[in-house]
Specification:
Blueprint: E1 2-12, H1 16-26, E2 32-35, E3 52-53, H2 58-62, H3 69-80, H4 86-103, E4 113-114, E5 133-135, E6 139-140, H5 155-160, E7 167-168, H6 170-184, E8 188-191, E9 194-202, E10 205-213, E11 216-228, H7 237-243, H8 262-269, E12 274-275, E13 280-287, E14 293-295, E15 303-305, H9 319-332, E16 340-345, H10 346-352, H11 364-369, E17 372-375, H12 378-385, H13 389-405, H14 417-421, E18 425-426, E19 436-437, E20 457-469, E21 472-473, E22 480-482, E23 488-494, H15 512-530
Parallel strand pairs: 1-2, 1-11, 2-8, 11-23
Antiparallel strand pairs: 3-5, 4-5, 6-7, 9-10, 10-11, 12-21, 13-14, 13-20, 15-16, 16-20, 17-20, 18-19, 22-23
Helix pairs in contact: 1-6, 1-15, 3-4, 4-15, 12-13
Length: 534
């Protein structure tokens, strides 16, 4: 095995947390190496809108949103409902604000912006209808120079044939800005196509990594710390089958393709404890013409029905809650809910389109692939999707009765601030995919309850997807990786989906996953810088 260079910090993974943590280290004069398994940087962050749930941060204050951090603390603790995670939550809330203040001092990061995305648990004490989510500003690809080609493409570009945009937004913008800021410190190095194999331990302390690059094993020494920020294990079918209650093998995941749990398994091999391995950032996925799903954030029209033809959920509810409901019902009801069927009509297509921009019919590829089915009647549609006609008819008729009153008496669609963002927008309220202003529906009291009564009728397929697993190595408030006895493994830190989530089993608000990755990568570097060794 070849012996590589010596650094102060070695970061495994190049998503938002990895690159921002690397920048924080390199900007303090620490020699910092980032190794990335694939040929592109960005990980799952590059697929995302890059929301950061950072209550009390400067961009929120600049937007004139007044709130104390106390309300956010009350909300976070209340929805997570786990006292063992309160120290992690306090560290997260503190780090988010401080990190943004620091990043905004660098012209590459410029000023983050606040956009209203309501908190996901509207009834919880401390919940904010305006939300607490901030976003990076867009950046022209040309401004990043040759580094732009290193950034992972979005899912529409990678899978669906969309053209690259000349302006990067969301996760690509965050990754691009962090990458260039990191490299311009003069203290940063990046190696792509370099896969973590194991951690190097001396006298109980992690002092480096072994990796494989271009078929050769190589070691890198870390004088201060190794930070594992390499995503989860969502693409590892064996681990998913071992830990998850529903049959998932990673095929339906919207996590980055390199996320197979290498860092998780390396940590376990040196004695790390784990937590939440049965969990993921579950989301509904809409099957596309290529046979794979894309994260589906919310539904403005139509209903979802299970294999029995029964409606079973508020289809516009926050996506993690909808995803967990798919898991729960599929596991416990005795009726298959994965896949489910999204049933809607021509009225919905005329207003919102389907699978593309406004005022265009569905691309023929949807029908040719079988991802979208069309019928002249509900009875014919029931036959096409193989559900009982009478039950489907009753589900549609019940839903149509709610349209007249504007009140969804069964699942209360349209009643929360989150739901109501879909009065005006098609797609995720701040995401890069299918995000455009919706046509109004002034003839209906609730624009999310259009009747399903205008033929032809359509059915698309909803499956259980995710934007990463959320179980991983157990860490403390400094992002130090812990042993089962609660002691820290010296020299080893974890952030993002490599670590067990500070939010436990819930998803408090838009930007919690990436926010956690950045916040705890920041905490890790601060601790590594200040660590006193005997």
């Amino acid at each position: 095995m070849a012996s590589g260079e010596t650094y102060d910090i070695v970061v495994v993974g190049s998503g938002g947390g990895g690159l921002v943590g690397a920048y924080v280290a390199a900007s303090r004069g620490l020699r910092t190496l980032v190794i990335e398994k694939t040929d592109r940087v960005g990980g799952t962050t590059a697929y995302s809108g890059a929301g950061l749930w950072f209550p009390g941060s400067a961009p929120i204050k600049r937007a004139g949103v007044e709130e104390g951090i106390e309300d956010a603390t009350t909300y976070l603790r209340g929805v997570v409902a786990d006292e063992t995670r309160e120290r992690l939550q306090g560290a997260y809330l503190d780090a988010g604000r401080r990190l943004i203040d620091e990043l905004e001092q660098n012209p590459w990061f410029q000023s983050f912006v606040f956009a209203p995305v309501p908190d996901y648990y509207a009834a919880a004490p401390g919940s904010s209808p305006a939300g607490r989510t901030i976003f990076p500003p867009d950046v022209p690809a040309v401004d990043l120079g040759e580094h732009a080609q290193l950034i992972r493409d979005t899912i529409p570009v990678e899978r669906l044939g969309a053209e690259r945009d000349t302006v990067l937004n969301g996760g690509q913008a965050l990754v691009g800005r962090a990458l260039v800021a990191f490299l311009e410190t003069g203290n940063g190095s990046l190696r792509v196509n370099t896969r973590l194999e194991s951690l190097v331990v001396e006298d109980g302390r992690v002092v480096g990594v072994t990796a494989t690059s271009e078929g050769e094993q190589i070691s890198f020494r870390a004088e201060r710390a190794v930070l594992l920020a390499a995503g989860g294990f969502e693409r590892n079918g064996e681990l998913r089958k071992k830990h998850h209650a529903v049959p998932l093998d990673g095929t339906w995941s919207n996590g980055a393709p390199g996320n197979t749990g290498d860092a998780l398994q390396a940590g376990i091999a040196v004695g790390a404890a784990t937590d939440l391995l049965d969990e993921a950032w579950f989301v509904p996925g809409l099957i596309q013409p290529d046979g794979l799903p894309v994260f589906h954030a919310g539904t403005r029209g139509g209903i979802w029905v299970n294999a029995a033809g029964e409606r079973f959920v508020n289809e516009t509810s926050p996506y993690d809650q909808a995803g967990h409901e798919l898991v729960r019902l599929h596991s416990t009801s005795g009726v298959p809910h994965i896949p489910s069927h999204w049933v809607f009509d021509q009225r919905h297509v005329n207003r919102d389109s389907f699978g593309g921009p406004p005022d265009q019919p569905p691309n023929p590829a949807w029908f040719e692939s079988g991802a979208l089915k069309k019928a002249d009647s509900i009875e014919e549609l029931a036959e096409l999707i193989e559900v009982p006609y009478e039950t489907l008819r009753e589900s549609v008729e019940e839903f149509n009765s709610y349209s007249a009153t504007g009140v969804d008496e069964r699942f209360h669609r349209g009643e929360t601030p989150w739901d109501q963002t879909y009065h005006h927008i098609v797609g995720f309220p701040a995401g890069p995919v299918m995000n455009y202003m919706a046509k109004p529906s002034p003839e209906f009291a609730n624009p999310l309850l259009l009747p399903i009564d205008t033929p032809p009728f359509y059915a698309a397929t909803i499956v259980l997807s995710d934007i990463g697993t959320k179980g991983g190595l157990k860490t403390d408030e400094h992002a130090r990786v812990l042993r089962p006895d609660g002691s820290a493994i010296p020299g080893l830190y974890a952030a993002g989906n490599t670590a067990a989530a500070m939010s436990g089993h819930v998803y408090p608000g838009a930007g919690t996953p990436i926010g956690s990755s950045l916040a705890f990568a920041y905490r890790a570097v601060l601790d590594a810088v200040s660590e006193k060794r005997g």
